[in-house]
Amino acid sequence: MKAVILAGGEGARLRPITYEIPKPLIPVKKKTIVEHLIELLERYDITDIGVLISAEHEPDYKRWHARKDLHRIELFTEPRPHGTFGWLKHLRGWLGDNSFAVINGDTLLDIDLHALRDAHEKHAPVATLALVHTDDANARGIVTMDGDHITDFTYKKEESAPSIISAGCVIFHPDVFAYADPAQEHVMIEDDILPKLVREKKLVGVEMKEGRCYDCGTLARWEKAIKEW
Fold this sequence. Notes:
This protein is α/β, with parallel strands linked by helices. It has helices at residues 17-20, 33-43, 58-67, 83-86, 92-95, 113-123, 189-199, 219-228, and strands at 2-7, 27-28, 31-32, 48-54, 74-78, 100-104, 107-110, 127-134, 141-146, 149-155, 163-172, 203-207, 212-215. The strands form four sheets. It has a seven-stranded mixed β-sheet. The two termini are 27 Å apart.
């Protein structure tokens, strides 16, 4: 299985730090978030890894790539923002005909990717989403379940109650590309793809009861990750 780490976001909520450092390259415990994610993927035998970056931050990533001697990791440059899914269609040749993982580059994760992969193979949906429990679901993808299937996905809902949320890691079957409007350049996984899969009952969720998930997209959440990781 191949994996793509989405590392092209602007990081607006982490200003002014992200004026100088791309969000996935900020450190937690002296190591960049994207390096933590690479280690997670490789620990679960996912070694064909691509990092999707923005043209604006390409020099930063190329310096990081060379300095860390990450020749085994592919860098793919997005010339302008296309959303979390929009540019993936340009990677279809590299991705091939098998299912592939997509993971947010601003989130620290410690989850069981074998369990996620096993569920994807068992249920054969279009997508299988890793889920975690949180006491603070504000600005997160909140899900409702019926058995193993996700029946509702609400993103960025104002919600502070305990909830089950997306961990920012999903396995897609190649059929997912049929759910993206070919005339639409900017396509979001959360807004444009997952709701369609929910309606067709083709989205499975796996709660990672022992998993850890730290969204580092704000200064407060980044500080929490540094203290607790």
